[in-house]
Amino acid sequence: MTQPNILQLAKQGDVQAIASLMNRHLQPKGITAKVAFQDTCLEVMLESVQVPNQQILVVFVRRGLTNLGAASIARVKVYGQQISKEFPAWSQEFDLGLAEADQELEDDEQFVNNPQILTISINFSGDTAQGLTNQDFEFIANQISTDILSSCNDIFIQKVSITNGNSVITKER
């Protein structure tokens, strides 16, 4: 299929064409889209090694489908699933009504495009007689932070500070 044919088929509601267009953008990021149609509801399953980022990917799907303008799609259900899991980690539904979708898209874009500062403060009180060092505290704090943020993409460490067993790790989205 050539691109104009895929685009035309996608506008007609062809699920393989819609999945193909989504996967062109998502597969380089390690995410695969599977698409199915139920009446006038398009179901989009997004699978990845880690749980896909709900906020960013729902905006991606909504923007793409709104721009596509497929008249046969009235409602969309988006699911995010980790490949090794049996059930989706999250799901979100939205109507593809143009006025409502445009407002929600604008709200979502403001959230996604504006960096959010997230500070995780982990306070440990340890007994140095037990042999816990600042390196031990730092290791534990980093493990906890990694666990908390494992489902968040597009985050980088801004600051890590360890003082007397208190660890403050600031990350920015």
Tell me what you see in this structure:
- The protein is an alpha+beta fold.
- The chain has helices at 3-11, 15-26, 54-68, 98-113, 134-149, and strands at 31-38, 41-48, 75-82, 90-95, 117-123, 156-163, 166-172.
- It has a four-stranded mixed beta sheet. The chain has a three-stranded antiparallel beta sheet with strand order 5-7-6, with helices on one face.
- Helix 1 crosses helix 2 and helix 3 runs antiparallel to helix 4.
- The chain is elongated and about 65 Å long.
TL;DR of this structure?
It contains 5 helices and 7 strands. By secondary structure, it is of the alpha+beta class.
What does the secondary structure layout of this molecule look like, with pairings?
Layout (H helix, E strand, L loop, with lengths): L2 H9 L3 H12 L4 E8 L2 E8 L5 H15 L6 E8 L7 E6 L2 H16 L3 E7 L10 H16 L6 E8 L2 E7 L1
